[in-house]
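Morning F.,

Quick status update on the modeling queue. The single chain you submitted on Monday has been processed. Sequence for confirmation:
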Amino acid sequence: MTKKIICVWIGTFKSEDKLYKSYLNFDYTNDDEPESEFAKDSGLEYYDEDFMESWWFSKLELNELTEYKDDLLDSEYFFDELIAELKNRDLTNRNSISFLFGEKGAYPTNEILFEYNGMESNNKPIEFVYRKEYEVK
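Structure tokens below.
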């Protein structure tokens, strides 16, 4: 049995480029400690970006988000709960959502997420909204 985890953030960005090219992109000029704005803001020192998925919308709307459910890894384990959580949030100015996956087991990745308790500051373009551990049989 493989223990997995998903963490989700919603965000507000001026453009799709700002999200993907400026915010999520790792800066490798310092090879010892490559970092991204997302890593700094979320408080995650390191994560494997291959296990992240981010979507930008002109406006984050739940019905539109639901259309992409089947495109998301393991969505059957958490998606309905995530939508319920987002219904309690103010999405008025939000236009992005980022999913970061981790797992313990034969092929561990992003194990730091199992200890992750969210962000320290709310004065960021992203907001931590959801975390769930689950097992894939």
